[in-house]
Amino acid sequence: MRTHLALAEDEEIALSVALDAVLDRHEHLWEQSKQEAIQALTAGFAEQIARLKHELDARDSTVASISAYFEKLVADLTDRSNRDPKTKLINFQRFLEQLESFLAAEQRVRWSAVGLVDITGFKGYNDAFGHAVGDRIIERVAQILREQARAGDIVSPSTRSTRLPSGEPRSGPSAREATHRELHARFGGDEFCFLIPDLGSCREAHAIAERFRSAVERHDWTREDPRLAVQPVRVDVGVVCLRLGPIAERRPIARRLAEALVARADTLMYKAKGERADQVYLVKARVENGTLIDSSNEKP
Quick one: DSSP state of residue 49? Predict the structure, then answer.
């Protein structure tokens, strides 16, 4: 300014002040622009981060859904492999596994019962009315077994609750908290089996078996086929009622004991066929020296 402008001292000072003001203003505008640019960039990053997080959450949700789907699929396939396709009851192999597990794990010394069921003269129904009618009979007997051997009768070893023979539940909180398992199964052909793991006495086992037998007898079989009016369906039931001894006595022989109980119940079922006055044939049994033996003198 001094070289090119001939200014008085006061004019030179005024011009310097004005130039400083202009520079300050531009510096302020630059700083403001820089902050706005930083904010815009930050907002852009935040938006991108939010979008990426949403995409990742969606992918996680998809992966979780796929995982849940396959878990359910495996569970369904496993369940189907353990079930009889006609009756939807568990198959005999699964029943035997559960019976073995019960005998090896149940710690309480109480009564339990294993029963086998056979449809009386089933071959005659097939021969007279055809296999389609025979299949309907099998399916209906399986349904009645599910209804009469109810979840309240069949409880897991961790609970104490059962139903009384009348069908009324025992009182107490355990009856509400019980975790139930299916312990009735198709044995094969026209035969079924069941386990009642927690009983106060053998009389209860007999009452439950009789309740089932009577329900089959009372069913209106003409609903399955009108021709069954002249030949209603009946069942024979054999039940072995076991007094559980100490768990240390049962655990080493659980598999063998499970098979022995089924075999004994099978024998009793065939005896029931010869006892036309009473189609539920029951005996009491106990384990002695690792062997299942009858104990007819045992108090019920």
Answer: H
More confident site: 122 or 297: 122
Helix, coil or strand: residue 267: helix
User: Exposed, middle or buried by CB within 10 Å (0-12, 13-18, 19+), for 178?
Assistant: buried
Residue-wise DSSP of 168-192: PBPSSTHHHH--B---EEEEETTEE
Distance CA 149, CA 162 (A): 11
Alpha helices in 82-201 (DSSP H): 92-105, 122-129, 131-148, 174-177
Q: Are residues 282 and 268 in contact, defined by beta-carbon separation less than 8 angstroms?
A: yes
SS3 for 155? strand
- What mean pLDDT is predicted for residues 230-243? 93
Question: 150 pLDDT band (50/70/90 cuts)?
Answer: low
Average confidence score pLDDT of the chain: 79
**H/E element holding 113?**
strand 111-119
Mean pLDDT across the stretch 131-140? 95
Distance in angstroms (rounded) separating the CA atoms of residues 168 and 179: 17
Give the torsion sign (CA, 213, 217, 218, 222).
positive
**Confidence band, pLDDT 50/70/90 cuts, at residue 218:** very high
How far is the C-alpha of 137 from the C-alpha of 125, rounded, in Å? Answer: 9
Q: Report the length, in residues, of the chain.
A: 300
Nearest C-alpha neighbor of 255 from the set 95, 82, 116, 99:
99
